[in-house]
Specification:
With 55 residues, this protein is an all-alpha fold. The protein has a domain of 34 residues. Helix content is 53%, strand content 0%. It has three helices and no strands. The longest helix has 14 residues.
């Protein structure tokens, strides 16, 4: 938060929220691994299959 405040004060820019899915879009492989790990820790067996391509 301090970094955001410093940037806004030095550049005069307003704060722009990156959005709720910022980290998911930034590191999709890490997000997928985290989700699989959470499900497995709850006792689920997880298999991943890609969705068929859209026409």
């Amino acid at each position: 938060m301090l970094t955001a405040a410093w940037h806004m004060l030095t550049t005069g820019a307003l704060y722009q929220d990156p959005g709720a899915d910022y980290f998911n879009l930034r590191a999709p492989t890490k997000t997928k691994a985290r989700a699989i790990g959470q499900l497995e820790s709850l006792g689920y067996k997880v298999t991943i299959e890609p969705l068929p391509e859209a026409r």
